[in-house]
Amino acid sequence: MTLETLAPDPSFDPETLDPTVLDALDGEYRFKVWGGDWCIDCKRQLPAFGAALAAAGVPDDRVEAFPVTKGPSGKEGPGVEAYDIDLIPTVVVETDDGEEVARFVEEAETSIAESLAAELSGAETVQ
What keywords does the record list, in alphabetical order (predicted)? Predict the structure, then answer.
């Protein structure tokens, strides 16, 4: 099973993002993305995030997609329990040592890329 909604949106214009956002994503991080192709929030947010990762130059081997399904007791899929995934999309950013340094859960006032960049840079907002 794949997570097709993470495929970069071909109409995404990286010029719409502040360069500091792309710079913050272009670190030595691993991006773990949980979502579902059936999920409205994922369909709305993940294509732009996939495009932002591509624009930042994040290699494919640093992005892991975890497709989530709906089960009788909630979300099901690889890593759902280990990472305490209740809502999707969820993106966990880790260092190469496996230390979690940022997390996006379901939605925010800004895009996934902007929200994570703010956390990664230690700023409250990215302008």
Answer: Isomerase
